[in-house]
Amino acid sequence: MAIEVNDTNFEELVLQSDKPVLVDFWAEWCGPCRIVGPIVEELSRDYEGKIVVTKLDVDSNPETAMKFGIRNIPTILFFKGGQLVDKHVGAAPKATLSAKVNAIL
Asked: Which of 29, 32, 40, 42 has the most C-beta neighbours closer than 10 Å?
């Protein structure tokens, strides 16, 4: 299951993680986010123990969203060693996101 991150714990759970991290920036009102949400949950199960899968509600956590220049949602950022290494903006099929995860493993 994806971990909810926020402005307070983002650095600890994402930037200081010893595993690669996927962060799904989303909002409750966002239609495409509702399409991507179940895919993100599937990835959290598929890659359990290999990556950390997280979700950040941009409405509740504007500081982190602003820090990473999130202007469109869903936006999925991929971190490795505390560094942003890839991103995907908009809805995407599972195969696309899986390929991005595999590239950072």
From this structure: 40
